Structures are given as structure tokens and as C-alpha cells.
Amino acid sequence: MAAAEVSVNRTVRDTIVKLKQTSVAELTAPKFVNGSTGNRLVLGVASMREHMTDEGWQITHGLSLNGYKHCGYLLDENQTDVSELISKYNPGTVVIQDVREWDYQPGDFRDKNAMFTNVDSMRSRDDIFRLTILKDSHQRPGYHRDNCLMMGIHAWIVYYNEQIVKHLATYVRPQHLIRTTHSIDKDIVPAFSEQRDSGCLFSGAVSRAYPLRQRIIRHRRLLPIVVQPHPGYHRDGCVVPGFMGLLNKFKVSICTSSMYGYTLRKLIESTACGCRVITDLPRDEILPVVEENLIRINPGDNHLTIRRTIEDAVGSYSYDKQRDLAKRAIELYDYRVVCAKLAEDIQTMKENY
Question: Hey, which of 100-109, 190-199, 315-324 has the most confident mean pLDDT?
């Protein structure tokens, strides 16, 4: 009799080999002369406070709490003309939000008033260290490359595994990626609930990027889950406080990582709200504290395996353990802490560029 097949959770490499790679050429590293002032600017989008999810606001606001002047429409420096900002502040470092968040297109839900102009004025200043935030690295690589070339970007701030980012966004230089994590606001995380009568919460968009989510939805009537539909992308008010309140009622949360193996924010939110986490995150993609909370499954696992995993996770829930993990996750992933480290990492990259 043949030996039973052993299911092994996927790795980052397993994830990459299944993803298509574009032919968008890597950008040449721009010149940088470290000799300008110590002034630091972060160019953000104020309306991201009201986006469905607010991590884009937290990262630029968090940097503004760590020595950066927050610039943009309705921000501390209410100015969107980059040439004017450079003339006024003569900065040594400029971080600009992901271009998709401010390059307004007709019909977009984003705020057209937040659009930055004359961004190409940065490129001629070899004494300004220029960075941008790159979130969804699989989207529109040619568009992003063109904008990075126009701005003369020295480095990218990324949320996800650098190997995966480089595979999808072939224009970036791997040595110039600064890894950060998603963050939360400790002030809106609900107090740990001792009343968790509900079992397992399933939430999120269900698209082709999430094959495991699609399988779960197909078998939802056979699984012990409560389904929370995705609220859609908008800027009609942040839904994060309400979502965290919902998580706080459950013992288990399913947090898939998509076909791209992304370490999504929900992993942190669920841990901070006291949930055990079932995920298909690659096993070599490690988040401090959160890693202790993960129950890994495979993207291809069938509904019977998923059902058993959910039942075991709910049945073995420990209030003491989850309370401790929640406390430590809140302390580590509060956006003030995350962005303090990010500010240090940017300075290190600048000094060693």
C-alpha cells in the first residue's frame, strides 16, 4: 500500500512559481548625494482617514509623528504642488504615498483634490532621498514603473514579502525595498471580550485572487462559519472599528493570503481582537507575535479539511492564551510603533544607499 500523502504548507517559493511575471524592466538606481538638509516630508492623502480601510492614512500620519512634515490637501502643510514644497522646505527626504492613491482618474472614489502636481521636480534633486509606498505590487507594473521613473524613486516601502514583491513588480530593485507591516490603532481595539459565543468568522472580497475564499464560499453551507460580506471600496467612512468589534465576538477568524501570499492586515486585526487565525499564509512568511497565533492550511485544502480545522480551533480556544497574544499584538503593531521603526529603517537605507 502506498504511503499516505503528507500535506505540507506552501512556501514563498511555492507561491512565486505559480505567479506570472511581467517583462517590465528593472529601473536603474538614481544618483543620490547625501548632503541636503535634515527636513523630511511625507506626502499623504487626508481623505484616506475615511477610506473603507485606513492603513494608508496610518502610515503617512505615523511618519508625521516621527519627524516628517505631513503634506497634502487638508494636511498640516496644505499644499499639493511638489515643486512648491521642495522650494519651501529644501528637504533631504521625501516619502510619497502610493501613486494610485492620489493620481485621480475619472470615476474613482478617491479625492481629486489630493492629486499631487509637479512630482517630476524631485527627480532633478540628487540631494533628496525619494521613496514611495508600493502596496499591491501585482497591479499595473508598467504604470507604476513610469511614475517611479518620472519621480526618480530611490527606494520603495512595501508591506509584503520582498521576494514576492520583486517577482510581481519587476521594475523595483530588491536591495532598495524597505519592508514594513500593516498596522492598527490601539485606541480603537475593543477590550478583550470574555463572551465569545460565536465560532468562526469568514470575511473579505471573493475574487479570483482568492481561490481559497472562493472554495469556502462555495461550501459555506457545509462549514461552521459566519460570513461577513466585503463592504466595498469607498471613502464614506472607515469600517475598521466596526469590523474589530465584530471580530471581538468570535473565537476564530479565517484570514486567507490570496494567490500572492500577502500578509494581509486582517491577520493582525484578528490577533489583536482575540481570535485564533486560520490562514494559508506561506509557512516561511513570519510575523512576530502573530506567528504564534496561526493555524496554517493549504490553498488547495478541501472543505472537509477546512471544517475539521475550524472545529478543532474553536474547540481548543484558550481565553488566557488569546488575551496574552492580543495584548502583545496591540503593543507591537500600533501604527505609532510601526512607523517609528519605519522612520529608522528609511534613515538606515538613506545612509547606506
Answer: 315-324
Q: Which amino acid is at 235?
A: R
Place of cell 500500500: 1
Cα separation of the two ends of the chain: 58
Distance separating alpha carbons of residues 206 and 201, to the nearest angstrom: 14
Residue type, 126: D
C-alpha cell of residue 72: 497634502
Task: Find all residues with CB under 8 Å of 250, minimum gap 6, and list them.
Answer: 196, 198, 199, 200, 201, 226, 275
Write down all domains in the chain, each with its CATH number in brackets: 20-183+334-352 (3.40.50), 198-333 (3.40.50.2000)
What distances in angstroms separate CA 173 from CA 152, 155, 159, 255, 265, one per listed residue?
Answer: 13, 8, 15, 30, 25
Q: Which residue from 99, 155, 95, 151 is spatially nearest to 125, judged by alpha carbons?
A: 151
Give how far Cα 314 sits from Cα of 82, 201, 291, 320, Å: 52, 11, 18, 14
What integer best gives the mean pLDDT of the chain?
95
Residue 71 near residue 79 (C-beta atoms within 8 A): yes
Where does the chain have alpha helices with state H?
12-17, 55-64, 82-89, 141-151, 162-168, 211-218, 240-247, 265-272, 303-315, 319-333, 335-352
- Whole-model pTM? 0.95
Kindly provide the b/e burial profile for residues 156-173, where b requires at least 16 CB atoms within 10 angstroms of the residue's own CB: bbbbbbbbbbbbbbbbbe
Place of cell 479565517: 254
Q: What is the pLDDT of residue 7?
A: 52
Which residues sit opposite 132 in a β-bridge? 96, 156
Distance CA 38, CA 138 (A): 34
**1: buried, middle or exposed (CB in 10 Å: 19+, 13-18, 0-12)?**
exposed
3-class SS of residue 215: helix
Q: What is the mean pLDDT of residues 258-266?
A: 96
**Alpha-carbon separation of residue 39 from 31, 67, 89, 347 (angstroms):** 19, 8, 7, 12
